[in-house]
């Protein structure tokens, strides 16, 4: 799944939200492969960012919530968590 994730990130960097969303969704569609790995969480965050890039606030908010919910008791100083929370707040 690493190549799929890298393609998703590449599409995000190129501001191609729909292509990025498709790549991250591929990962989430194969949960048995990525369920207990960090890649699952990163795919959820990537999907949220892709939806935000497409200006689909409803889907972006839902995807950010899917990413943030399992992290609710995590150390709040984790950089990627802080960044995701800030991005989510901008959608409000």
Walk me through what this model shows:
There is one protein chain. With about 90 residues, this protein is mostly helical. Helices cover about 75% and strands about 0% of the residues. The chain is built from six helices and no strands. Helix 5 runs antiparallel to helix 6. It is globular. It starts with a helix and ends with a helix. The model has no long low-confidence stretch (mean pLDDT about 90).
How many beta-strand segments?
A: 0
The low-confidence runs, each spanning 5 or more residues with pLDDT under 50, are none
Beta-strand proportion: under 5%
Major sheet size, sense and barrel closure:
none
Q: Considering DSSP H and I runs of 4 or more, what fraction of the residues is helical? A: over 70%
Rough outline: globular
Number of helices: 6
What is the mean pLDDT? 90
Multimeric organization: single chain
- Terminal Cα span: 32 Å
